[in-house]
Amino acid sequence: MLLLAPCLALLETEEEEQSFSAFFERYHRLVLKKARDVVKTQEAAEDVGQEVFLYAAEHFKKFNGRKGRDIVHYLRLCTQSRAINYLNKNRLEEPLDEEQIAAGGICVENAEQILLRHDTAARILTAVEKLPERYRAPLDLRLNGESYSDIAELLGIRKDAAYKRVQRGYEMIREEVLKSDGE
After folding, report:
1. Which tens digit of pLDDT belongs to each residue from 96-131?
2. Contact 60, 106 (CB under 8 A)
3. Most CB contacts within 10 A, which of 82, 154, 163, 175?
């Protein structure tokens, strides 16, 4: 169940709290549905939804005065991005147990390679999370199988801009990973 109280605690005035309560009531089903479409379970969808609304409360001034269509668009992107991050993060946190290793016929040398791949994946995910939203959103959509045309339509930008933002996102990730290799 999504909780409104933690979100309200982030707001400054009673007027903002009332406005956010109406915002929450209007959009919470949309956010939960989008999150459930990606993460597949109600519990995970609620975790993602709570994160989205906490972010929205922190940045609520950005939402005031916006058209409903723009808010829906942004909330969908924000929810999808956070849901994908949730899946990736939880996939990395699942440890390999001895039965999985034995069942797969994985030997000690291969286990070391798997650990190295997990470490690399963790560094990549950290780099993705550090990306500015303008690059992370199109990159998340692309990694989720969306075409550049669909990304452009969803973000309200031109197709070539969508392509350039995805490519720049990849470049920024490579730079971050190489920088972390050097440390």
Report:
1. 455 544 545 444 445 556 556 666 667 777 787 888
2. no
3. 82
